[in-house]
Design a protein that fits this description.
heterotrimer, A alpha+beta, B mainly alpha, C mainly alpha, A: alpha+beta, five-stranded mixed sheet, four-stranded antiparallel sheet, 19 strands, about 15% strand, globular, disordered N terminus, B: mainly alpha, 14 helices, about 0% strand, elongated, disordered C terminus
């Protein structure tokens, strides 16, 4: 999973801009269907789609991108072994074959995964796609020059932790990936991983022809396997122009519709300007969308009063949770009663308001996002109601020996408008005051903040945190945060509660053995509920995405995997 | 900046003789009615800032207390009610999303914004005058070193200075102090250049040369002859610095290195309010209006101070008025 | 004159090197683990160590700075994984984040910021000088009051507020102008103009108040001088006096001050560039500071420093040419 700090978000293809959102509708009612202003008539091929974004599409190299499900723009150029199902709502959380004929054949204990390529797959230059290129593409992602991707290949592949990439291996390659022939590829894992098909959606699984590899320069013109090829990449992803790849065969690709003839991705735009442009929908902006910018709170108020505009808003849910994190090694948070008191005292409605109100965030009492695919199991161990239970909190503080009140420091990021920023921090400060807890705020500049909270030695006791889905399942959501073996003592650590509970670790291993993902999901939910009792985190809210589209945009499909409209489905005619 | 130029901008070129008596200065200042009005307005603003706790107590509101019930959460947190939720309890309405009282935040914000801007201005003037005098009187080497040092400071971006100082200074130093320091470091160079060039031209004047010849030390010359003469350009320029400093505070806030929440400041309010222009206009217009009134009143006062300090200004103004009449009468005559 | 140029050149080299030293020191002291940021948050300690080595971050700061100086005067080579990226002198290094030479990045951005500064420059001169002239000539008129008020509003309102209001009014509500966007002049001059008009206006509103005051005060000064009285005595019309003689006195300081402002605007239009999505030097600075991309930050600061120093020299030279009493030092 990734947490949405500036740099990772930048690398993430589905860059989810920090402005967050939430809506009162449940996950099964994701707004996909009602979006798309002029949905009369069937979508047609042709035209140019504009994408207006805030964050540039930097590092457009399949080795370097950190995506959930292959990303949005990247997925137009890079096909992968598997991909996400391009359907609206919960259907869209499923994994489906892409370059491969199926989602992978595991051996009995899910440590060996075998894939076979479809027939007739070609690059943009007409040459055939082979499994050797997929192996090479994965190997490249281990090179220090091309860092940035997700950690799973390193952690799961046999020998992955020691491998330093193809530029340094003397041509030997990574032995745990076998390519017995040009159509077959076999992965050997060091432990059972039933969720491997999800991992195979990431861009590292896109083929890269070794002869065309230009190292760090590859990003300016990566070789396309998808429906579009890169014709222009200015200033590291500030302006991307994609055009139809004539060698892509629709017959081999059941997922991408590829209606527009060309796609123009512009970034570096101010969020409020993006929304002004989409709502005005003048000229080429009528065929424009954004993949990373939410409607802001001020704009929501305006859209609410305009029916035509409201019809052009797409609502989506991406698996993400914002929460309070405690470090139980720091006093007074070593005392579970103090942590519980804070859990009772939080005012979720004012925290939700701080990030844009009930249309842009839903209050959260579980760590897992409220979607079935994650195994969501409802619970509320420390019921605070909508605006906090100060009486119960005071009672617990008294039991903990803080009858005269308590002074604590809350660490937050200085990034304005973000879910870990000063707005949420001041909302919590105000709420805890009612329970007799005086909160001092410690705001850190974004890089400093990340470094501080991710370092076991510097980690503060009480801070704001967020965690998002690498793919819609409980595994990448719970394990990095609560599995004791994932505590990183000399690097970036995400198990901020420093929880090392043998029963939790064992259950993680047990669930990872399951290849039946439907059976695994409820067990993640049960594990979430069990961990929740310890109050090492206090979930605050899940963001909801509300995004405008231009008035000529058709076929808006928003899955619960990404929460944003899928560019591969959008038509402008 | 080019000193000759700045000097002319601030009227330093006219500093030919020490300012005439303080009584004359006040008489000339009071003679300008606009200046009196502006000074009263500005005094009111200062009063509001100083009396912030009193005023909010009168209203019965706390600047940092949230009122979630007063905003419409589903509509992004826009204040309920008309004109940004103005009511008997909340005189100027409430802030979107949080429901905090706008009046209380504005008056407390005045403390931070005006306080930071004023103190920063004093520090800027102090550093500027000291370095400017040192450059002018300290010989060629001191002049070169100080001038090049000034260039470096002018060329360093605000963001780099801000981040640098925030990184180096421990967190225990209060943020307003730090912001003041950042602004002071950014903005002293103009003053120093004005002082340097004015002092250089003053040095060659007869009465200063005479003082030096009669055996006065450099310090004595600086204190007794130069400083009084420099008062006019420095005060004129300094008055302009105050509003500029309020803007820098806003820019720092926009760049994420400003005053810490929940402390309000006008700059921070403006930054937060800018997208609310359409759905909650008062939220933007109030701090913007206060800032505008501050700048306007200070500009008028500054203009007035300059006119009063510049001995030739009065006659010049008169000439302007008279000559227009002359032109008119000439025109009539020519008909 | 030669002496002046040589001294200024020496001063410029000193200022630029001093700037680079300051940036190195600030970033050395600033928090943020560069290798971790470049590598990505989920990198293992071993991977971070590899990136650390690749970027030569383990060297003491004076060694890193020495490499920087070597690149500046002799060029440097960097590995791209499969080959070598050569960076010719003057090489400001390779961006940590973008892996391309900083000089290339700057060359791409200069026309963008250059376009922004040139247009804004023309506008603020027109608006500022116009307002100044009017206020010296016809004090108290309705037009003069409106223009003075406008320039003061510009002076007292942060650019992100002015800019957004302009966008909403002229692009969204009235639809008179396209949304600001940078198009290279060589691609389409018309789009270049319309796309930059609002950023120009925003900057001009902010800058022009200063010029209005400058023009007004130097005009009033000239009008009080003896030779102007003589002209009046000869019966010249007020318009001729203001237009021909008093204005001439105001030209020199206006040229000089505007050269300075244009110089510092190369790195100083950060907020304007961010708001309007104009991807110039200022935006590059903010982004690279956030990403702790030291080579880019040094490059940007030295570039802006160069323009400040250049403008300083030009301003002093122009001023001396216009006013014989000033001696070049």
């Amino acid at each position: 999973m990734r947490q949405m700090s500036g740099n990772v978000a930048r690398a993430a293809a589905i860059a989810v801009v920090l402005a967050v959102g939430a809506v009162a509708c449940g996950p099964d009612d994701s707004g996909a269907k009602n979006a798309g202003g002029s949905s009369d008539g069937k979508p047609q091929k042709g035209g140019t789609l504009s994408v207006l974004n805030n964050e540039p599409q930097t590092d457009f190299d399949p080795a370097r991108l950190y995506t959930s499900g292959g990303g949005n723009v990247p997925s137009l150029v890079f096909r992968t072994l598997t991909t996400r199902n391009r359907e609206a709502g919960a259907e869209g959380t499923k994994v489906v074959p892409d370059l491969a004929t199926d989602t992978g054949k595991p051996n009995a204990d899910a440590t060996v995964w075998t894939y076979t390529l479809k027939d007739g797959l070609k690059y943009e230059d007409g040459s055939p796609i082979t499994t050797a290129d997929i192996k090479y593409g994965i190997e490249r992602s281990f090179a220090a020059e091309l860092s940035g991707g997700a950690p799973y290949l390193r952690d799961w592949l046999v020998g992955g932790d020691k491998y330093e990439g193809p530029y340094k291996d003397g041509g030997k390659g990574l032995a745990s990936i076998e390519t017995p022939d040009a159509k077959t590829i076999v992965f050997h894992l060091n432990k059972p991983e039933g969720e491997f098909p999800y991992l195979a959606t990431q861009t590292q699984f896109a083929p890269v022809p070794k002869a065309k590899d230009t190292g760090t320069k590859y990003e300016s013109h990566p070789v396309s396997s998808g429906p579009y090829k890169v014709v222009k990449n200015e200033n590291d992803g500030e302006h991307l122009v994609l055009e139809r790849n004539p060698n892509w065969s629709e017959a081999t690709d059941a997922e991408r519709k590829a209606y527009p003839d060309s796609i123009d991705v512009r970034s570096g735009l101010d969020a409020s300007v993006i929304n002004q442009r989409l709502s005005a929908s003048q000229g080429p902006d009528s065929a424009a969308v954004t993949t990373d910018t939410n409607l802001g709170p001020a704009e929501l108020a305006k859209v609410g009063g305009d029916k035509a505009l409201a019809g052009r808003v797409g609502t989506g849910h991406f698996g993400y949770t914002n929460y309070i994190a405690f470090n139980p090694k720091v006093k007074p948070f070593d005392d579970p009663k103090v942590r519980q008191a804070i859990a009772y005292a939080v005012d979720r409605s004012s925290a939700v308001n701080a990030v844009g109100g009930s249309s842009l965030a839903e209050p959260a009492t579980t760590f897992l996002p409220n979607q079935k695919a994650f195994g969501y199991t409802e619970f509320d161990h420390f019921p605070a109601g909508a605006s906090g239970n100060a009486a119960k909190a005071k009672e617990l503080l008294k039991e903990a020996g803080h009858a005269d009140g308590l002074t604590v420091t809350l660490t937050h990021s200085n990034a304005k408008g973000g879910p870990k920023g000063p707005e949420v921090a001041t909302a919590l400060q105000d709420a805890l005051k009612k329970a007799g807890i005086t909160v001092k705020l410690q705001g850190l500049e974004a890089n400093d903040y990340n470094e501080t909270i991710q370092s076991v030695s510097k980690e503060p006791g009480f801070f704001l945190r967020g965690w998002g889905a690498d793919w819609p399942s409980g595994g990448p959501f719970l394990a990095p945060i609560f599995d004791g073996r994932q505590i990183v003592k000399d690097g970036a650590n995400f198990n901020t509660g420093l929880l090392d509970d043998p029963s939790v670790n064992k259950e993680v291993d047990e669930i990872n053995k399951l290849t039946d993902l439907a059976a695994a999901a409820p067990r993640w939910g049960a594990l979430d509920k069990k961990i929740g009792e310890q109050a090492v985190v206090v979930p605050l809210f899940h963001p909801v995405y509300k995004r405008l589209v231009g008035k000529d945009i058709k076929n808006v499909v928003i899955s619960d995997w990404t929460g944003v409209l899928d560019i591969s489905q959008v038509a402008v005619k | 900046m080019s000193e000759a130029l700045l000097a002319s901008q601030a009227g330093a070129a006219q500093v030919a003789a020490p300012a005439s008596g303080a009584r004359q200065f006040w008489r000339r200042l009071r003679a300008q009615r606009a200046v009196t009005v502006a000074a009263v307005v500005f005094a009111l603003l200062v009063f509001v800032a100083l009396a912030a706790p009193l005023l909010t107590a009168l209203e019965g509101q706390d600047p940092n207390a949230f009122h979630p019930a007063l905003v419409d959460s589903a509509a992004g947190g826009v204040p309920k009610g008309s004109f940004g939720g103005i009511s008997g309890d909340h005189w100027l309405g409430v802030e979107p999303q949080t429901g905090r009282d706008l009046f209380a935040r504005l008056v407390y914000g005045a403390r931070v914004s005006l306080g930071v801007a004023f103190i920063a201005t004093l520090v800027q003037v102090f550093i500027g005058v000291s370095l400017g005098l040192l450059a002018a009187l300290g010989g060629r080497w001191a002049d070169q070193v100080i001038s090049r040092f000034t260039d470096v400071v002018v060329a360093l971006p605000l963001l780099v200075i801000g981040l640098g100082l925030i990184a180096i200074v421990p967190d225990s130093v209060p943020r307003p102090v730090l912001i003041t320091a950042v602004i002071a470091v950014v903005g002293w160079s103009g003053t120093s250049k004005i002082v340097r060039s004015s002092a250089l031209s003053l040095k060659s004047l007869d009465y200063v040369s005479a003082a030096r010849l009669s055996g006065w030390g450099r310090l004595a010359v600086a204190r007794r002859e130069l400083l009084p003469a420099l008062a006019a350009p420095v005060i004129t320029y300094g008055v302009l610095l105050v509003p500029a400093n309020v803007s820098i505070e806003a820019a720092l806030s926009f760049l994420g290195v400003g005053i810490k929440p929940p402390t309000p400041s006008w700059g921070q309010m403006l930054t937060d309010a800018n997208t609310w222009y359409q759905s909650a206009p008062t939220y933007l217009l109030l701090p913007a209006g206060f800032l505008f009134v501050t700048v306007l009143s200070l500009t008028v006062v500054g203009e007035g101070v300059r006119t009063a300090l510049d001995p030739r200004a009065a006659s010049r103004l008169k000439v302007g008025v008279k000559s227009r009449k002359d032109a008119k009468s000439r025109k009539e005559a020519s008909k | 004159m030669t002496g002046f140029l040589l001294r200024r050149l020496g001063g410029a080299v000193f200022v630029l090197l001093a700037l680079s030293v300051v940036v190195y020191l600030v970033f050395y002291a600033a928090p943020g683990n560069v290798a971790q940021i470049v590598c990505g948050e989920r990198c293992s300690p071993a991977q971070v160590a590899q990136v650390h080595d690749r970027l030569q971050l383990g060297d003491p700061i004076y060694v890193q700075y020495w490499h920087f100086l070597q690149g500046l005067f002799a060029g440097r080579d960097f590995s791209s994984g499969v080959g070598v990226v050569h960076c010719d002198a003057p090489c400001l290094g390779l961006s940590y984040r973008q892996d391309s030479p900083v000089t290339d990045i700057l060359v791409n951005k200069l026309p963008v910021t250059g376009s922004l500064v040139i247009g804004a420059f023309v506008l603020w001169i027109l608006l500022g000088v116009g307002t100044g002239l009017l206020s010296a000539w016809k004090r108290g008129g309705a037009i003069e009051r409106t223009l003075t008020g406008l320039t003061l509003i510009g002076f007292s309102t942060p650019v992100f507020v002015i800019g957004l209001v302009l966008i909403i009014v002229f692009c969204s509500t009235l639809g008179w102008l396209p949304f600001p966007q940078y198009t290279p002049f060589s691609d389409n001059p018309e789009q270049w103009f319309w796309g930059l008009l609002l950023p120009w206006i925003s900057l001009a509103l902010i800058e022009s108040a200063k010029y209005a005051r400058l023009v007004r005060s130097s005009m009033l000064e000239t009008l009080a001088e003896d030779h102007v009285r003589t002209f009046r005595a000869y019966g010249l019309t007020e318009r001729a006096i203001v237009g021909k003689h008093a204005l001439r006195g105001a030209v020199a300081p206006v040229i000089a001050l505007s050269a300075l402002d244009a110089g510092s605007m190369f790195g100083g239009a950060v907020l304007t560039e961010s708001l309007f999505g104009i991807q110039g030097i200022g935006k590059l600075l903010v982004d690279s500071v956030r990403q702790v991309d030291l080579p880019v930050v040094v490059g940007v600061v030295m570039t802006t420093g160069f323009f400040v120093v250049l403008a300083n020299a030009v301003a002093d030279a122009l001023y001396a040419m216009a006013d014989r009493r000033v001696v070049l030092q």
